[in-house]
Recover the amino acids of this structure.
């Protein structure tokens, strides 16, 4: 599953209806992008500031577009007010996740 070296160490957990993905968000970046893995989390740089849930909203929108799924399939289940978030993503398997993140 972790064959892509860019995602070595990423801690993705399979669930009954999808995956649990740990994410590290860096707000106020120059552009929205996936920066690889930091620790065991997927590192995202997002342009929005970390106020009033803007970074959370953009995090969900950015990943939904990247993974080609509806925004409603992604829920923040931990770390809503932290840079370290835990996302539950339904409708995708761990094997399908990495190739889509790499694009």
């Amino acid at each position: 599953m972790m064959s892509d070296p860019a995602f070595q160490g990423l801690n993705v957990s399979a669930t009954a209806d999808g995956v649990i993905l740990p994410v590290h968000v860096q707000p106020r970046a120059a552009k929205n992008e996936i920066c690889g893995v930091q620790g065991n989390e997927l590192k995202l740089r997002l342009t929005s500031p970390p106020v009033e849930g803007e970074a959370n909203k953009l995090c969900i929108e950015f990943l939904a577009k990247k993974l080609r799924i509806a925004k409603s399939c992604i829920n923040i289940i931990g770390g809503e007010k932290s840079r370290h978030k835990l996302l539950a993503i339904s409708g995708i398997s761990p094997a399908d996740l990495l190739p889509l993140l790499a694009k």
